[in-house]
Amino acid sequence: MKKILIVGAHSDDPIIGVGGTIRELSKLGNSVTVLSVCGDRIEGYTEAIELLSAEPVYFDFSYAQIDEEDFFKRLEELMKKLNPDIVFTHWYSEILYDHEVVSKHTIKLARKFEKEIYLFEIPASSQDFQFDVAVDVTSSYEYKRKAIEMMKSAFKEEVFEKEIMPSIIFPAGFRGIQIGCPYAEVFKHLGSRFPLSPCRKKLLDLSKL
Asked: pLDDT per residue over 58-91, tens digit each?
């Protein structure tokens, strides 16, 4: 069993970027913790993450109000407590400030503690995203959809219908076409320390993480 930490800036980000993979990892018996940095106690977040069979946690920073020094300290404490084997977080080139801040500090700490790192995409904000790892999430796709729908009340109706839901529906199908399965999620693998490995394109076998 592996211990896995997913770090997202906002409560919807882990579901959009890695929701299907969260459930696939959990199904295999891994311990998965999902952190929302700008938690703001969004209604439905806890239930959505639990639907994906993961453990939800959150910090109480507000949108575009992350204190970088405080965030770094709190994330460092969480990583020491959880001691994850693998860390997932945002792509490093992002339109949104929160995403970029979270990515920068999460990668820095994951490097410090020599964790394996994967970066996920957010279709509305990830700039020039490139992937070299894919996960077949076909069997978990409907759970991903249900999870985001559980947080619908947290968004303006137009934002949910025109930005959030399309970010769930279309990328999974498009990436699936690219990979050769009905639905997929894709990631940039930043390599690992043990063993020291380069980035390379591969279909990720979650049972062998």
From this structure: 999 999 899 999 999 999 999 999 999 999 999 9
- Could you write out the three-class secondary structure of the chain? CCEEEEEECCCCHHHHHHHHHHHHHHHCCCEEEEEECECCCCCCHHHHHHHCCCEEEECECCCCCCCHHHHHHHHHHHHHHHCCCEEEEECCCECCHHHHHHHHHHHHHHHHCCCEEEEECCCCCECCCCCCEEEECHHHHHHHHHHHHCCHHHCCHHHHHHHHHHHHHHHHHHHHHHHCCCCEEEEEECCECCCCECCCCEECCHHHC
pLDDT tens profile 29-48? 999 999 999 976 678 999 99
